[in-house]
Amino acid sequence: MAWFSKSKSKKENKSSDIWIKCTKCENHIFKEDWHNNLNVCPKCNYHSKISAYERIGLILDSGTFDEINISIYPADPLGFVDAKESYKDKVAKTRKKTGLNEAIVTGTGEINGIKVVVAVMDFRFMGGSLGSGTGEKILQASNYSYDKKIPFIIFSASGGARMHEGILSLMQMAKTCAGIARLDERKVPFISVLTDPTTGGVSASYAMVGDLNIAEPGALIGFAGRRVIEHTIKQKLPDDFQTSEYLLEHGFIDFIANRSEMKNKLYQVLSFYNR
Amino acid sequence: MNKKETSVSDMEEMLEKLKAMTDTKDSDFAEQITNMEKLIESKKKNIYSNLTPWETVQIARHHKRPVLDDYIKLLFTDFIELHGDRRFGDDRGLIGGFAKIDGQPIMLIGHNKGKNVDENVIRNFGMAKPEGYRKALRLMKLAEKFNVPIVTFIDTPGAYPGLEAEERGQAEAIARNLVEMAQIKVPIVCVVTGEGGSGGALGIGVGDSILMLSNSIYSVISPEGCASIIWRDGTMAQKAAEALKITASSLKELKVIDEIIDEPLGGAHNDYPSTVKSVKNVVLKHLKKYKGNSESKLLKKRFEKYSNIGVFNK
Ligand SMILES: [Zn+2]
Fold first, then answer.
1. Which residues surround ligand 1, an ion (CB under 5 A)?
2. In chain B, what is the greatest distance between 2 CA atoms, to the nearest angstrom?
3. Residue range A137-164: average pLDDT?
4. Is B202 part of the contact surface with chain A (CB cutoff 8 Å)?
5. What is the pLDDT of residue B25?
6. Chain B nearest-CA residue for A182
7. How close is the nearest chain A Cα to the Cα of B131, in Å?
8. What's the pLDDT score for residue A3?
9. Average pLDDT of the residues of chain B
10. Domain limits at B251?
11. What is the mean pLDDT of residues B63-74?
12. Which end of chain B is more exposed for a tag (fewer CB within 10 A), N or C?
């Protein structure tokens, strides 16, 4: 594939219908191969982002997903306007472009016949940021888990809090964790799956407090941004800093699982749940 | 210090000179002094009732603003500091221990900002590390065991963004506190006294009553940080401070906090005794509210409180 990386020409742009360039190893992969491999690079095992519904398709038994709270979408509590546009317009555009109402899809389904409640974040919706609607959907999903005593699984993919909702966004960290805290009362398992990226306020709330924390390979997981840290400590950080592998080594992840084996791993773990 | 404050402080300086002249010479400036005092008072009133969010940020970060040390000395008695998280070390940026307020025993936990460079180097400017949040949790569990309410004082630019903090699980430490604080079986009263810096503030900020001093701020991100991300320009901080709605009155409107504690005219840094008195009265009022509540009622109400935070469409 070396001939491709030599010239970043128009040819390459035209061929982008057929090829995907891996952002990690920079190899060009046939789009079809890329998708058949679940958006994972066949050359370097880089797990790129996938949409919430694609992930649900990979995890839940076909035809078992029952979505809840599909109609919740962001309001604009601060009347926030950034350099280019208002939050309201940004939300409208994003909803139209992604077909999603919020940065998370929630519902119930089955994993090899075991009933679960899932909440799956979608990075395409404003970087998977945690807004009021996102928080509400997570809380309601965990409440459903609590009421029915069904295991709860969250798949995180998020840059953190949603600045456009200011302090209300920060408070969603406390709100979601209050819901998760209740699950212990009833001995309901909560599994957190961390995918690329899981950072900021999402890492510092529900994503890091699973009974099990499971990560996809090579995901960026951390609290503060790399640049902020480098600026603070005035030194370069190691290359593997804030990766799944780094977190595993430091004791914050139970194990790393490839996307292709995630469903089976979740099933294996849940099959130990004896209630 | 902002421009408006400077003009007041110039006037105050002049007033002092007038007073000094009255003391040293026989001449009597009584009338001028009274007039000057009135003028300063009205000017202050005018300034402090019309602060922009960015001006509020400056006051919240004022180097003379009372910090935890001051409250420990002036508001509480019998403080016994308890050190260490029993896992890694003792964070000087976030401290705690038993204390009494108006004779009532409580567990006091707070960010430990200093007032000069030497203090701030040791205390890391009140930016806590994982061991700080884990110590806080240990002390909250202890409060639960001893059956004393918890009072937290929040004043931090944010959780410490460093290599070691990440390595030791800054995210996990804060997240764990959010989960545990939702279920701690004694009343928790949180007071934002200066800067409520994002997750670093929230890590000791989940409770039954959330209070804010009138010139304090509480934000998901610093105005500077927001400006550099959204406007790609750190100098837009002033604009970001407005857009983010970070003042006590905004947070009250958004139903995130329960009560605003009024600061004396000129801000907390101009009058410690009055500030301490207001804080004490309001904290006592809120502690009283939860006295005699059953554990289950307390936790149910706390859960409802957080369930209701947020604005979205359906
Ligand atoms: Zn690759």
1. A 22, 24-25, 41, 43-44, 46
2. 75
3. 98
4. yes
5. 59
6. B183
7. 15
8. 38
9. 93
10. 56-308
11. 97
12. C
A17 to chain B nearest CA, in Å? 32
What is the average pLDDT across A122-135? Answer: 98
Same domain, B9 and B145: no
Give B11-17's long-range contacts (Cβ < 8 A, gap of 24+): B11/B36, B11/B39, B11/B40, B11/B43, B12/B40, B15/B40
Task: Give residue A2's pLDDT.
Answer: 37
Residue scoring higher pLDDT (A101 or B29): A101
pLDDT of B3 over the 80 cut = no
C-beta atoms of B206 and A233 within 8 A: no
- What pLDDT is recorded for position B24? 62
- A24 C-alpha vs ligand 1 centroid, how far in Å? 5
Does residue B313 lie within any of the structural domains? no
Q: B29 and B143: one domain?
A: no
Q: How far apart are the CA of A4 and the nearest CA of chain B, in angstroms?
A: 33
CA distance A228 to B163: 10
pLDDT score at B2: 55
CATH assignment at residue B131? 3.90.226.10
Contacts with A, B 116-175, CB within 8 Å: 159-163, 165-172, 174-175
Q: What is the pLDDT of residues A167-212, one digit of tens each?
A: 999 999 999 999 999 999 999 999 999 999 999 999 999 999 999 9
- Say whether both B42 and B65 belong to one domain: no
Asked whether residue B158 is assigned to any structural domain, the reply reads yes
Residues B11 and B138 in one domain: no
Expressed in angstroms and rounded, the spacing between residue A263 Cα and the centre of ligand 1 is 23
Using CB atoms, which residue from A182, A204, A232 is nearest to B162? Answer: A232
Host H or E run for residue B45: helix B30-48
Cα torsion through B259, B299, A130, A118, rounded to 10: -160
Q: Does A225 touch chain B (CB under 8 A)?
A: yes
The closest of B143, B126, B130 to B80, measured between CA atoms, is: B143
pLDDT tens figures, A4-23:
333 444 444 456 789 999 99
pLDDT of amino acid B26: 59
> A20 C-alpha vs ligand 1 centroid, how far in Å?
10
Token pair in block for residue A77: 């509590």
Same domain, B31 and B172: no
| Statement to judge: residues B200 and B300 lie in one domain | yes
Taking the model in full, what pTM does it have? 0.92
Interface of A with B in 73-92 (CB under 8 A): 73-75, 77-78, 80-83
The type of residue at A62 is S
pLDDT confidence of residue A129:
98
Of A78, A173, A241, the CB nearest to B245: A78
Instruction: Flag if A78 and B168 touch (Cβ within 8 Å).
Output: no
- What is the average pLDDT score of chain A? 93
Nearest CA in chain B to A83: B231
Comparing CB atoms, the residue among A136, A233, A250 nearest residue B162 is: A233
Q: Are B265 and B44 in contact (CB under 8 A)?
A: yes
Chain A residue with Cα closest to B303: A178
CA distances from residue A47 to A20, A255, B187 in whole angstroms, order as listed: 13, 16, 45
B202 shares its domain with B298 = yes
Segment A105-115, tens digit of pLDDT: 999 999 999 99
